[in-house]
Amino acid sequence: MTPSILERTAPAKTILCGEHSVVYGRPAIAVPVSTMRARASVLPGPKDSGLVIRALDLGRDFALRNVGQDQPLARMAHLVLESLGAPEPDAIMTLSSDLPVASGMGSGTAISVAAARALSAFLGSELPPEVISALAYEVEKIHHGTPSGIDNTVIAFEQPVYFVRGAPPEILRIHTPFHLLIANSGIAASTRDSVAEVRHRWETAPSYYNVIFDCIGAIAQAARAAVDQGALQALGVLFNENHELLARMGVSHFQLDRLTDAAREAGALGAKLTGSGQGGNIIALVDPDTVDAVRQALIAAGATATWHAEIGC
Ligand code: MEV
User: Fold this and answer.
1) Separation of 66 CA from ligand 1 center, angstroms?
2) Catalytic annotation on 151?
3) In ligand 1, which atom is closest to the CA atom of 106?
4) Ligand 1 atom closest to Cα of 147?
5) Is the CB of 197 inside a 6 Å radius of any atom of ligand 1?
6) Which of 151, 193, 228, 257 is catalytic?
7) Fold (CATH) for 6-170
8) Of 183, 182, 190, nearest to 304 (Cα)?
9) Contact predicate 6/122, CB 8 Å
10) Which of 59, 69, 139, 244 is the most buried (most CB within 10 A)?
11) How far is ligand 1, taken at its centre, from the CA of residue 96, in Å?
């Protein structure tokens, strides 16, 4: 009999407002993008094989016993086994993802959340979102030293969140669904480098950067009210202002500015970079009837890929 394969998935995420300043205690809003997913499947392996991890997108297979815990997937596997008090199983875990890497959609976190869900389910005790979020936070520290916790929270809970570092996440109810176009600049960017650069700038001019962080925090609060009231014009303006402030913080890029300008000129209600910046993705808030025009404008301005996501549906 063919052994049955057990599969679990996890979504991409995008940050609506508040990236970077969230690292410094200001609020931020993030939403899952449920149509783009990372997948993990586990099936029983040969006796004494231990856990073999096949990372299809990395083109890499490795046995858990042969890698150190600085490897993020190995770290997650060990964390799951420790949480459950379970011995290493003889199993094969295969991972793949729709998400572009190094682009602000949380690809590393989505893979590790999918892996934790699948491995814990395989071991007969699927871990709840709050535990998976905490484990994914530990893995995030390998990707960049001082994560705020927003990425693991939105991906593990798979709900829109209003997030303040150190406080329990508040799940946002979206009464009026809205449409985002996500566009990839084609420029790979490292979250670790971008977060480290902002920290360096903040250390050299704390009062200046604290004002920027405060303004972005106020934008996140206003965006929360706009999302709650379905005030999409206002939300678009807040996207634009958040982008300006991120540019002042030094994390935009001429191609991100070009894409956000193109989206606005083609009728988007607002546009901003999303995630750690310096490359990666932008998001544009669009009316459903302008999706095609904005998408074409983004491609003409050099976007290498676009995705349409309905948020809150
Ligand atoms: C990365 O998706 C978001 C940042 O704010 C970093 C973090 O919150 O840990 C840039």
Assistant:
1) 31
2) yes
3) 2
4) 9
5) no
6) 151
7) Ribosomal Protein S5; domain 2 (3.30.230)
8) 183
9) yes
10) 139
11) 23
Ligand 1 proximity of 40 Cβ (cutoff 6 Å): no
Domain ranges of the chain: 6-170, 174-311
Amino acid (one-letter) located at 127: L
pLDDT of residue 5: 77
Query: Looking at ligand 1, which atom is closest to the CA of residue 23?
Result: 8
Does 150 sit in the ligand 1 pocket, CB within 6 Å?
yes
Nearest-atom index, ligand 1, CA of 13 = 2
Does ligand 1 have an atom closer than 6 angstroms to the CB of 108?
Answer: no
**Residue to mutate, 19, 155, 242, ligand 1, most ligand atoms under 8 Å from C-beta:** 19
CA 103–ligand 1 middle distance (angstroms): 12
Contact 140 CB / ligand 1 (< 6 Å)? no
Q: Which CATH class is domain 174-311?
A: alpha beta
For tokens 């927003």, what's the residue?
150
